[in-house]
Amino acid sequence: MFNQIVAVSSIGFLAWAFRSLRPPPPTICGSSGGPPVTAPRIKLRDGRYLAYKEHGVPKETAKYKIVFVHGFSSSRHDLAITTWKIVEELGVYFVSFDKPGYGESDPDPKRNRKSIALDIEELADQLALGSKFYLLGNSMGGQVVWGCLKYIPHRLAGATLLAPVVNYWWPSFPANLSEEAYYQQFPRDQWALRVAHYAPWLTYWWNTQKWFPAASAVAGKPKFSQQDINLLSKLGGTEKQKAYVTQQGEYESRHRNLMIGFGRWEFDPMDLKNPFLGNEGSVHVWQGDEDGIVPVILQRYIARKLPWIHYHELPGAGHLFPFADGMTEAILKTLLLGEKYPAAEKN
Fold it and tell me: Hey, where are the domains in the chain?
């Protein structure tokens, strides 16, 4: 009798564990019971749909065409870093898109660095952006830019990475340096990133269970600097934005983003070669030296390893520095016109 009770209890525990570990299926936009489709979308090579949004001057008259890649808890609507004045002055056309699983873009269970680079290439082709276009990635969108520099460098006229999130397990980082940077993070993030890297199949459970704190970015409590706190008032509508970002499910949007960003990469960004040997374009990394989310010491190391990167370090700036007054103009003029920003010299 005791053995039977143990057996039944074990089966019950395993069933509970299976349900807890297994993420629910996504609620696909346009499906029965799913969120409605309100955005323009393109159909990709594998049948998925990618939602996008056009900003700036008309594409037909634009002097520059830029594809914008949003960050971790953002979407195609997140282009608040730009101002109409500078966009009109320079003649810039932007297209932003919801990354797979975010907003109204179909999830991609096979998403990786190469697949999203190819998504961007298809977006550019279907919107007729020409043989080359510029790329601008913010925060975790910067990781997508590294993938594009690896897989579609021939399509880029130039690229900018704004506070690009690093992966502590990139092979080129000296162990002592990556360890120092890793332990600057909240303990909750140290654990969440370990899970995403070493046991990605536990990512959904870790960030939804109630015993241990989830990743601070998932919980909406990232390690902000004083400048970030001061700038947060510019980012109104956080709850509405979060609802849109995750409307197809947390797992296929933010959780998968963690797994891809902090998992095992098939290439090391520090092994990349300069895609613009003829100086026909340039790559820029902008970083605040008080960024609590992306350790500046790792960004400095990347800049030393890749001397062809134009590295701009901003004193006193945090992770949200792109929203600070004057930064839009500096970022765009540096990328498009080659102008120098006085406070952003090579470190």
Answer: 30-337
